[in-house]
């Protein structure tokens, strides 16, 4: 997996800000084939500071990339923040706000008593989300939302960069 960062180091900027910085995050995942080569992108904005992250995996799924975008964005924050996290994935938003607590109670089994898909990523997202105060928001993908469109571009750039290194 590859990561790249551009613009200022938001994590360090947030640590010198007010007691609980407000950060707006836009995330997206992309996959060419499902499974297939995939990428994720995230934009973090706090005041005048902006950070872009992206990464890729050779053989993955769209849901895994959507989860990775949220995990890596939250991991980039070095202190507790008030976060508004935008995703176009109902799987991510519903999973972390509605389903995860039942999965934990049932030992990471679904209501149908099946193993939760992407369990390790859900555990990582849960761990990262507990470090912050997060308002999870859904946005329709490819609807012209500037943050979502940029996150999608980053995810696709990550795939292109990975494939050009092959």
UniProtKB/TrEMBL annotation:
Binds 1 Mg(2+) ion per subunit. May bind a second metal ion at a regulatory site, or after substrate binding. Monomer. One of its GO terms (molecular function) is RNA-DNA hybrid ribonuclease activity. Residues 142-152 have a biased composition (Basic and acidic residues). Residues 1-32, 142-166 are annotated as: Disordered. This is Ribonuclease H. It is an enzyme of class 3 (hydrolase). Endonuclease that specifically degrades the RNA of RNA-DNA hybrids. NCBIfam families: PRK00203.1. Its cofactor is Mg(2+). Its main location: cytoplasm. Its EC number is 3.1.26.4. It is found in: Cytoplasm. PROSITE patterns: RNASE_H_1. Residues 19-160 form the RNase H type-1 domain. The keyword Nucleotide-binding does not apply. InterPro entries: RNase_H (IPR050092), RNaseH-like_sf (IPR012337), RNaseH_domain (IPR002156), RNaseH_sf (IPR036397), RNaseHI (IPR022892). It catalyses: Endonucleolytic cleavage to 5'-phosphomonoester. Mg(2+) 2 binds at residues 28, 152.
């Amino acid at each position: 997996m590859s990561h790249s960062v551009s613009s200022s180091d938001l994590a360090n900027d947030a640590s010198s800000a007010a007691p609980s910085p407000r950060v707006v995050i836009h995330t997206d995942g992309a996959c060419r084939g499902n499974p297939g080569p995939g990428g994720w992108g995230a934009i973090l904005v706090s005041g005048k500071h902006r950070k872009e992250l992206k990464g890729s995996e050779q053989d993955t799924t769209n849901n895994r990339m959507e989860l990775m975008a949220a995990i890596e964005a939250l991991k980039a924050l070095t202190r507790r923040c008030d976060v508004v996290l935008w995703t176009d994935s109902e799987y991510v938003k519903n999973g972390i706000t509605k389903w995860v607590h039942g999965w934990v109670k049932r030992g990471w089994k679904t209501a149908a008593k099946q193993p939760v898909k992407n369990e390790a990523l859900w555990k990582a997202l849960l761990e990262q989300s507990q470090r912050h105060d997060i308002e999870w928001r859904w946005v329709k993908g490819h609807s012209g939302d500037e943050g979502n469109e940029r996150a999608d571009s980053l995810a696709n750039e990550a795939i292109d960069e990975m494939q050009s290194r092959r």
